[in-house]
Amino acid sequence: MTTSAVEATPYNFAYLDEQTKRMIRRAILKGIAIPGYQVPFASREMPMPYGWGTGGVQITAAIIGPDDVLKVIDQGADDTTNAVAIRGFFARTAGVATTTQTGEASIIQTRHRIPEQPLQSDQVLVFQVPIPEPLRFLEPRETETRKMHALEEYGIMHVKLYEDIARHGHIATTYAYPVLVDGRYVMDPSPIPKFDNPKLHQSDALLLFGAGREQRIYAIPPHTDVVSLDFEDYPFEVQTFDEPCAICGTRGTYLDEIITDDKGGRMFVCSDTDFCERQVARNQGVQNQSSAAASEKTEMTDA
Amino acid sequence: MYVAAKGGEQAIANAHRLLAHARRGDRDVPGLTLAQIAGQLALAVDRVMAEGSLYDRDLAALAIKQSRGDLIEAIFLVRAYRTTLPRLGASEPVDTARMQIRRRISATYKDLPGGQLLGPTFDYTHRLLEPEIAENDAPEQPATQAPNRDPVPRVTDVLGYEGLIESSPEAESGRPVADLTREPLEFPADRDLRLQALARGDEGFLLALGYSTQRGYARSHPFVGEIRFGDVEVEVFAEELGFAVTIGRIGVTECQMVNQFKGSAKAPPQFTRGYGLVFGQSERKAMSMALVDRSLRWQELGEEQTAPAQDEEFVLSHSDNVRATGFVEHLKLPHYVDFQAELELVRRMRAEIAERADAEIDPENTGPKNTGSKNTGPAGPNREAAE
Amino acid sequence: MLEDFTPSEAFVPEATAEDPPLLRASGVSHFYGNRVGCQDVSFELWPGEVLAIVGESGSGKSTLLGCLSGRLTPTAGVVEYRMRDQATRNIFDLSEAERRFLARTDWGFVHQDARNGLRMTISAGGNVGERLMAIGNRNYAAIRGEALDWLGRVEIDADRIDDRPEQFSGGMRQRLQIARNLVTGPRLVFMDEPTSGLDVSVQARLLDLLRGLVSDLSLSAIIVTHDLAVARMISHRMMVMRNGTVVESGLTDQILDDPQSAYAQLLVASVLQP
Question: What is the ipTM of this complex?
Answer without folding.
Answer: 0.84
